[in-house]
């Protein structure tokens, strides 16, 4: 019954196309040797830090975070190492949040959600909000046809470097606070990563694994069956419990969407209260840490 209640939990579905790789497929075209630089004035860096509330102790580490390896500025280290560090900090804190908040989510979907919510593409949008496109130093490779570096990628990796700089200069708690404030403060939309090739078969396998009645589809409503624009609404049921619903211009399409809806309702269930392992590192943490129970729910065909 608990499983059925999870399936009955409402969850919004949005028709958002999914790209398995969330990195931009086509890079922003730039002219050969066009240098994208901005002077590191004390006023500019100070204003940037004030906007984000980041009082760096070491100003040079911030300059390094904003310096791409292509800039080749004498006296300033590029952001390669900070990118490496920041990426791992982001993966740690966002990853543990996803694992705790969505306990039924299979591992492959967890990885997809991690990339979708905090990968280079998502971080590049955040960079533009910060105004990093006016601060970073970088230039395209000399051979235009060999260029694999576009503005989106550079901006996204600069945010990784910024997180690495915060981690290095201000400590892990400040880095975590930054990630929570700018990446985890909004409600996550998991619908783009919930793609299934055969949702009906997967739902049957999941039901068998969870020991509930085999799901069956039932017509709920229909209109215009013999016209050029029919609409069918199909419900997916386990016993007497409706666990999913879908519509379409054909019965097959409606059934497909109903099965997918049932899977999203189950795998997309959100835990309202949960513990985060890294919370024990907070200096104000004064309660007993209770780990979340690990779930094993994927139903692979």
From TrEMBL:
Domain DRBM as annotated: residue spans: 198-268
RNase III domain sequence ranges: 45-171
Entry's localization field: Mitochondrion
InterPro entries given in the database record: dsRBD_dom, Ribosomal_mL44_DSRM_fung, Ribosomal_mL44_DSRM_metazoa, RNase_III_dom, RNase_III_sf
One of the record's GO cellular component terms: mitochondrion
TM helices/strands, residue ranges: none
MF (Gene Ontology): double-stranded RNA binding; ribonuclease III activity; structural constituent of ribosome
Keywords noted in UniProt: Mitochondrion, Ribonucleoprotein, Ribosomal protein, RNA-binding
Superkingdom of the source species: Eukaryota
Main location: mitochondrion
GO BP, sorted A to Z: RNA processing
PANTHER family named in the record: LARGE RIBOSOMAL SUBUNIT PROTEIN ML44, RIBONUCLEASE III
Family stated for the protein in its record: Belongs to the ribonuclease III family. Mitochondrion-specific ribosomal protein mL44 subfamily.
Name used for this protein in its record: Large ribosomal subunit protein mL44
Source organism per UniProt: Smittium culicis
């Amino acid at each position: 019954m608990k499983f059925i209640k999870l399936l009955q939990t409402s969850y919004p579905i949005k028709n958002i196309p999914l790209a398995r790789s969330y990195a931009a497929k086509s890079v922003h075209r730039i002219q050969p040797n066009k240098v994208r630089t901005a002077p590191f004035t004390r006023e500019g860096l100070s204003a940037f830090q004030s906007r984000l509330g980041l009082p760096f102790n070491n100003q040079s580490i911030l300059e390094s975070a904003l310096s791409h390896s292509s800039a080749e500025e004498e006296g300033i280290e590029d952001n390669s190492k900070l990118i490496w560090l920041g990426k791992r900090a982001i993966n740690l804190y966002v990853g543990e949040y996803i694992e705790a908040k969505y306990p039924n989510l299979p591992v492959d979907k967890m990885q997809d959600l991690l990339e979708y919510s905090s990968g280079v593409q998502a971080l590049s949008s955040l960079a533009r909000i910060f105004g990093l496109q006016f601060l970073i130093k970088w230039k395209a490779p000399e051979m235009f046809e060999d260029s694999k570096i576009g503005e989106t990628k550079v901006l996204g990796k600069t945010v990784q470097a910024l997180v690495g700089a915060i981690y290095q200069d201000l400590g892990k708690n400040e880095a975590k606070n930054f990630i929570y404030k700018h990446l985890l403060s909004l409600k996550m939309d998991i619908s783009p990563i919930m793609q299934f090739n055969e949702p009906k078969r997967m739902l049957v396998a999941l039901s068998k694994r969870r020991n509930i009645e085999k799901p069956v589809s039932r017509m709920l409503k229909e209109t215009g069956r013999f016209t050029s624009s029919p609409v069918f609404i199909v419900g997916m049921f386990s016993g007497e419990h409706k666990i999913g619903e879908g519509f379409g211009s054909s019965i097959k399409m409606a059934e497909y969407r109903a099965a997918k809806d049932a899977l999203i309702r189950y795998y997309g269930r959100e835990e309202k209260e949960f513990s985060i392992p890294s919370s024990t590192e907070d200096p104000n943490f004064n309660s007993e840490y209770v780990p979340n129970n690990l779930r094993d729910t994927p139903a692979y065909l």
